[in-house]
Amino acid sequence: MIAIFTVDKFGRKPLLIIGSVGMAIGMFVIGLLAYYDSIGVGTLIFIIIYSASFMMSWGPICWVLISEIFPNTIRGKAVAIAVAAQWISNFIVSSTFPVLASFSVPFTYILYGIMSVLSALFVWRIVPETKGKTLEEMSGMWRK
Fold it and tell me: Crossing angle of helices 41-55/12-35, nearest 10°?
């Protein structure tokens, strides 16, 4: 819900980076709390921080971004591939979590925190900002 009011004001890229950082903080702290067997209210707080960070960024914004970022000539196919990749990634995370957690719960959360940091770096370095740009401008960007 927050993203509805912030995505056009702040842009997609800053919100994705901020969300990734918030998600990383949540995962790292949960991993540390699990390492020290300190599961309790603190863990709940950082689960909420992780969830809120996801809900204001990757949850809704990835759908906006994939519909805006691709040139008109390939948009349909590119969106289909991006959506498929997103669902495959969801499946991989869901199916590997139990295996990773059986090995080490703290390691699992630290690994997910690292992935969140990598996603922030990916957005910062590679993903173009689409805020305020027309579809034609985005298509022109890909021609360069």
Answer: 160
